[in-house]
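Inverse folding, one chain.
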């Protein structure tokens, strides 16, 4: 690795979202969903080796189409701001799953986001094999990503893979596996918010959703 450490972040959107909800419940009247990922990720470059430079950010998420149109619209508004700051959006989808209640025996439909773990694993291997970074930071505490880490370490041993655990999502298994890890503190979410409104490069103003 040269003195310059090219860093790519892979952000598990739903893992971060539920972490943010934990922070909001803890703080009370604070709102943290209008999160500026580029600003947040940049603030943690000092935790990495060498002269760390941000190379790219990949944000993995899915639109909750089974919920209200307003929920989707809020999400799309946020994604416009992320894209404006150079974040690459990686969209998965929710899928229906039939669940049987063990108590009453009735079946009901549950919606689960099913593709994010695979998408993160595939993108991780791609950017490492293609030499698009020296260090990959996975922002998630999801144990399902352990196999992705093991494969990446085996195939691209000259690269570094680090976990950044969202607040309240630290994972002991991933911590023991990884080259290094660190935690995202609750105040960091609050300190790295988009302006309201966020002004896009073309001058368009995007207002923070009122319920956020």
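Residues assigned per position:
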């Amino acid at each position: 690795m040269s003195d310059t450490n090219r860093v790519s972040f892979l952000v598990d959107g739903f893992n971060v979202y539920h972490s943010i909800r934990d922070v909001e419940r803890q703080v009370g009247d604070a709102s943290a969903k209008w999160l500026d990922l580029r600003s947040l990720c940049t603030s943690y470059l000092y935790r990495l080796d060498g002269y760390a430079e941000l190379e790219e950010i990949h944000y993995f998420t899915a639109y909750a189409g089974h919920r209200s149109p307003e929920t989707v619209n809020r999400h799309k508004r946020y994604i416009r701001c992320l894209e404006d700051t150079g974040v690459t959006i990686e969209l998965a989808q929710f899928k229906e799953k039939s669940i049987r209640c063990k108590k009453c025996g009735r079946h009901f439909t549950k919606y689960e986001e099913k593709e994010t773990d695979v998408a993160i694993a595939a993108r991780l291997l791609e950017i490492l094999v293609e030499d698009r970074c020296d260090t990959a930071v996975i922002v998630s505490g999801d144990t399902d990503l352990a196999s992705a880490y093991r494969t990446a370490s085996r195939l691209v041993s000259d690269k570094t893979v680090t976990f950044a655990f969202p607040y309240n999502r630290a994972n002991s298994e991933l911590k023991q596996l990884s080259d290094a890890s660190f935690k995202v503190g609750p105040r960091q979410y609050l300190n790295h918010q988009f302006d309201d409104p966020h002004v896009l490069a073309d001058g368009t103003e995007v207002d923070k959703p009122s319920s956020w």
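The chain has a mean pLDDT of 92. Residues 123 and 155 are 14 Å apart (CA to CA).
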